[in-house]
Automatic annotation (TrEMBL):
Protein's recorded name: Rab5 GDP/GTP exchange factor
Gene Ontology biological-process entries: vesicle-mediated transport
A20-type domain: residues covered: 13-47
Domain of life: Eukaryota
Region (Disordered): 471-491
PROSITE patterns: VPS9 (PS51205), ZF_A20 (PS51036)
Top-level taxonomy: Eukaryota, Metazoa, Chordata, Craniata, Vertebrata
Pfam families registered for this protein in UniProt: DUF5601, VPS9, zf-A20
Any one Gene Ontology cellular component term annotated for this protein: endocytic vesicle
Alphabetical UniProt keywords: Metal-binding, Zinc, Zinc-finger
Organism listed in the record: Capra hircus
Keyword Zinc-finger: yes
Domain VPS9, residue spans: 232-375
GO function terms (MF aspect): DNA binding; guanyl-nucleotide exchange factor activity; small GTPase binding; zinc ion binding
Amino acid sequence: MSLKSERRGIHVDQSELLCKKGCGYYGNPAWQGFCSKCWREEYHKVWQKRMEEDWELAERLQREEEEAFASSQSSQGAQSLTFSKFEEKKTNEKTRKVTTVKKFFSASSRVGAKKEIQEAKAPSPSINRQTSIETDRVSKEFIEFLKTFHKTGQEIYKQTKLFLEAMHYKRVLSIEEQSECTQDFYQNVAERMQTRGKVPPERVEKIMDQIEKYIMTRLCKYVFCPETTDDEKKDLAIQKRIRALHWVTPQMLCVPVNEEIPEVSDMVVKAISDIIEMDSKRVPRDKLACIPKCSKHIFNAIKITKNEPASADDFLPTLIYIVLKGHPPRLQSNIQYTTRFRNPSRLMTGEDGYYFTNLCCAVAFIEKLDAQSLNLSQEDFDRYMSGQTSPRKQESESWSPDACLGVKQMYKNLDLLSQLNERQERIMIEAKKLEKDLIDWTDGITTEVQDIVEKYPLEIRPPNQSVAAIDSENVENDKLPPPLQPQVYAG
């Protein structure tokens, strides 16, 4: 089998990682293959078109209500008091319907306006000083960082506080709308620093990272895996999928990593630790930073194994293997959270965007992994997925002398358990077969006995009359010798 055919289910062309609109930035499955910039443009087009259609519908409904009301009023003259009450009720109902329709189709920023006015009387708990040590530390670091920018830093701090206060009132919005507000804030602040503050682009990126760290430390508990989304459902689905694929070996994925080499084994452990550590971070920037760290350990492991630099075709299968072996918690929630609230410029370009896009591709591959992708028959794939059997482990004769004794013993025990499992399955099959044979034999004997009884029924006859002497019927035979008489023998 050629190397090309072995990789047919895993290989991803680098052009597939880019935005499908052809802008040159990295795309993302969460943005339907677009980059952040193109996705926002498409989103705004669809949203604008929907808003126009909704306003047309609202205006049409309002005109119909007004025409119906005017027609009803002109066709009837003076009405009684009862009709006056009905007319007043009709007017109120018409006004309520039109207002409801307009409110339903209005911009998201107008939703819950009355509720916001009532809640505005109380101070927002999200902008108060938090008792968390991490929050206090981030606040101090952010203030110290902005002091170096003097007036520009004061303006940035003021805008950031206003944004946090506004986000407190927007919790009633969907997570997509909250993400849109956050991305707009990032874009507006960056443009204002470049145009008004004349801040160089390199420093703008550093400032935006600090702004993101400051605001997302406070918003994380509200926008990470919210109950209004299906993020938790996706987490459970991918966890169940990874558990079902525990039997996948590096050879099936064509992973060019030899874990028997101690340095390579250490790199694999570090890569798994980095991908798991992503869930412990609160800020999207810190979560995203775990992915390049994991990827660099993967590249080092491949380089040590092959004694040459790793390629993209080697990296993606190894990343898939690391995800399967590491089983990172809340993987989908972390990806969605990073996609929604990370500075989009970091996801579209650079090293972080490339590795993050590869992670999204790895998760998509795991969700769609099939027998053809692993070069297995459908029958073997179904047996492995159902847990009926597992792939044959490495033979003990092929171990190198320097291999870990614990690993050898582990594989030996796994082989023994696999053999015992196969023997148990064979015994159960033979026992069921024996049970079936005994039942069939019992049924057959019962049927034969019934047939014989029906064919030869049992007849009970009365007993014959007893005779006086055994020779009474031999009257005609008078030539018989006399019976023997006992004689005494005198010795």
